[in-house]
Specification:
The complex is a heterodimer of chains A (338) and B (346). With 338 residues, chain A is an alpha/beta fold. Chain A has a domain of 89 residues. Helix content of chain A is 30%, strand content 22%. Chain A is built from eleven helices and ten strands. In chain A, helix 4 crosses helix 5 and helix 5 runs parallel beside helix 6. The longest helix of chain A is centred in the middle third of the chain and has 18 residues. Chain A starts with a strand and ends in a 32-residue tail after the last helix. With 346 residues, chain B is of the alpha/beta class. Chain B has two domains: 225 residues, Rossmann fold, CATH 3.40.50.300; 99 residues, no CATH class. Chain B is 35% helix and 23% strand. Chain B is globular. The relative contact order of chain B is 0.13. Classes of the chains: A alpha/beta (338), B alpha/beta (346). At the A-B interface, helix 6, helix 7 and helix 9 of A face helix 8, helix 9, helix 10, helix 11 and helix 12 of B.
Chain lengths: 338, 346
């Protein structure tokens, strides 16, 4: 298997909660990301799924160094980038770019498309010398399937799908090795989502990109990802290949999440065996002790409240069920005729 | 509603709601945007109709016209009928219409946080329904509010009745919206993307609750959504909208198994499937049309793989769909000149 391009070790991001106006004192912390480890291999797509508030977008921000990690390491090709600053950070950032969720707010309405896509070159002039920039931007427009003549248009003259292509072109401008896509298609219409997914896959092949694909749409994540990680309340609860996660999930949360996804097939209505979880996701400022999922888990026992389950391959399981899962009682769920 | 009133209305056997040839336009600076262009659909008591469409297809505008909550102007309804129990609501006076809205037809909105008033407690807002429409006292209204919150399974309803909307989670807020819609035991509920803003595990809870209450009260339900998965789970019949028209109608099982319109077909094909892993997804080419400039002929023709000359000049009506031997397929219609070919295309 290919080398690790990105390695994340025990990454933590806490946002302090303070009290008082003049003399702020910390009274607690929102534990948005609380000890996450995984690796991203060269040329692979790692999908990250989870519900809102599970910390998946915070994770993306920390990897991009938009937010500073509280502790832990982010190794890019073996070098810890989480504490870099100044010129060293700038150099590394070239290699990790991001595509945002909302193409309506992530593009400056007062800048032309040419300026938006060309802006990364201002910061990293070594990628495209001044005289070549216009040509470089036009090439990028062409690569993402937009007419290169649109270079002087403004974002409002484009539809949502086209804007997302502009966002992707901007992400590609510096020829990065990793692109972090944070919900890249969830703001788009169904008929346009497929176009953008196809474009992302094609670009990955053409440029040898590694993707981290954050989304809540499980069927799209399965389609595009080689491996999938499931997050709950700041923790990675299960990670494995798409087959391991989707067919042989051993963590109860993953099982509930998968069973809750509406299947676009009315014949499955009666045969489905859906786990409806009770209650809501607890507050990350005050997560449950032990296993964070235990308050909504039907398997929870005393041990779950006392002991934090570690993300590891359970020794009791074999075959595709043997992948990393953070549960004290991991087992593959018997599916009713699916 | 008391029983005598229900009995008095019982003999009416037609559809609960019947929308006929509805047109809605918006007058904008750049011209007239034709949002709804001749929509027909009907719902019976106890039935769930799903209206499926992308943004700009006119699905929400139709619902707003039914509820009578369109801002007019800029909107106007040049033509059409909206019959509730046989009576055209568009011809009714303001007061009569208001009696139907809220009491007989209720709506659930997508974003519960903006649909609820942030400075009033949820108990007050729920109780308001009873005070405004039933004229009950404040204390009684509060009791009713607690009852309703229990109904939609909000834990510790008695303690939470004085909480404000922001103190509830997204799923709980959506339950309050449902409680509010149910308050006066309406005959018909219109739910506009009721679970789109929610996470999947919470979405499942809310949809289950809605379906359960619907069958308990034998209500009609119009579910407006863009999510093919949610539709497959709960709908009895489906109307697919595109550019302000219904392009296909069908009972739910038939629509998924044998679509008769290329647009429906394209939507179904663009869902990622297991056996297609690593392959390119099917994508409908092009973009949804600008409502200021809907293409002549069939609005879908510039994106349609099947388009012929006739599609660019003539507007297809909703043709009844039948088997090869002429057996009509009940409840099915397709606004495509080539529905026969599309139906067989599998």
């Amino acid at each position: 298997m290919a080398e690790n391009i990105l390695e994340v070790k025990d990454l933590v991001k806490h946002y302090p909660l303070t009290q008082g106006i003049l003399f702020k004192k910390q009274v607690g912390a929102v534990k948005a990301v609380d000890g996450i480890s995984f690796e991203l291999k060269k040329g692979e797509t790692l999908g990250i799924v989870g519900e809102s508030g599970c910390g998946k977008s915070t994770l993306a921000k920390v990897l991009m160094n938009l937010e500073r990690a509280t502790s832990g390491q982010v190794l890019f090709k073996g070098e810890d980038i989480s504490q870099l600053s100044g010129a060293a950070l700038k150099a590394v950032r070239r290699n990790i770019q991001m595509v945002f969720q909302d193409p309506y707010t992530s593009l400056n309405p007062r800048m032309t498309v040419g300026d938006i896509i060309g802006e990364p070159f201002e910061i990293h002039p070594e990628v495209a010398p001044k005289g070549d920039r216009r040509k470089a931007v036009q090439d990028l427009l062409d690569v993402v399937g937009l007419n290169p003549e649109y270079i002087n248009r403004y974002p409002h003259q484009f539809s949502g799908g086209q804007r997302q292509r502009i966002g992707i072109a901007r992400g590609l401008a510096l020829k990065p090795e990793i692109i972090i896509c944070d919900e890249p298609v969830s703001a788009l219409d169904v008929s346009v989502q497929a176009q953008v997914i196809n474009l992302l896959e094609q670009l990955q092949g053409d440029f040898g990109l590694s993707y981290m694909f954050i989304a809540h749409d499980l069927s799209i994540v399965r389609h595009i990802s080689d491996r999938v990680g499931v997050m709950y309340l700041g923790k990675m609860v299960e990670i494995g290949s798409d087959e391991e996660i989707y067919e042989n999930a051993t963590h109860p949360y993953t099982q509930a999440l998968l069973s809750a996804v509406p299947v676009p097939d009315p014949t499955a209505r009666e045969s489905r065996d859906r786990i409806v979880l009770a209650g809501d996701i607890p507050s990350p400022a005050n997560p449950p002790s032990g296993c964070r999922f235990r308050t909504r888990c039907w398997k929870a026992e005393d041990r779950c409240a006392e002991e934090i389950p570690l993300l590891a391959v359970p020794s009791v399981l074999e075959g595709p069920a043997a992948h990393e899962s953070a549960c004290h009682f991991p087992e593959v769920r018997e599916q009713a005729a699916a | 509603m008391d029983t005598t009133e229900r009995e008095r209305e019982a003999p009416y056997s037609g559809p609960l709601l019947d929308v006929r040839d509805l047109h809605v336009e918006f007058v904008t600076r750049d011209g007239v945007a034709k949002a709804v262009n001749g929509v027909n659909y009907s719902v019976r008591a106890g039935e769930t109709l799903a209206v499926l469409g992308e943004s700009g297809s006119g699905k929400s505008v139709t619902a707003q016209a039914i509820m009578g909550i369109l801002d007019m102007p800029p909107a106007r309804i040049p033509r059409g009928e909206i019959r509730f129990r046989g009576q055209d609501m568009l011809k009714m006076g303001k007061d009569e219409r208001r009696r139907i809205r809220g009491q007989k037809i209720a709506m659930i909105f997508q974003d519960a946080l903006s649909a609820l008033n942030p400075v009033l407690t949820v108990g007050f807002q729920l109780g308001e329904m009873f005070r405004a429409h039933r004229g009950v006292s404040r204390r009684e209204a509060r009791e009713k509010a607690v009852e309703l919150m229990d109904r939609v399974r909000i834990p510790a309803a008695k303690q939470r009745v004085n909480d404000y909307p922001h103190q509830f989670s997204g799923g709980m807020r959506q339950r309050i919206m449902i409680a509010m819609a149910l308050a006066l035991e309406p005959d018909l509920i219109i739910a506009d993307e009721p679970t789109t803003a929610l996470d999947v595990t919470v979405q499942a809870q809310v949809m289950d609750l809605l379906a359960e209450l619907q069958s308990e009260f034998h209500m009609g339900l119009i579910l407006i959504t863009h999510d093919l998965g949610v539709v497959a789970d709960v709908a009895d019949k489906i109307a697919v909208m595109y550019a302000g028209r219904i392009v296909e109608t069908a009972p739910v099982h038939q629509l998924y198994a044998r679509p008769a319109h290329p647009y429906t077909r394209g939507l179904l094909d663009s869902i990622p499937r297991l056996d297609q892993k690593g392959q390119e997804l099917y994508a409908i080419k092009g973009l949804p049309p600008n409502l200021l400039r809907i293409p002549p002929g069939c609005a879908f023709n510039p994106r349609c793989p099947r388009a012929q000359d006739i599609c660019r000049t003539d507007v297809p009506e909703l043709f009844p769909v039948a088997e090869d031997d002429g057996t009509p397929l009940e409840g099915r219609g397709s606004a495509c000149f080539f529905w026969k070919e599309t139906l067989h295309d599998r």
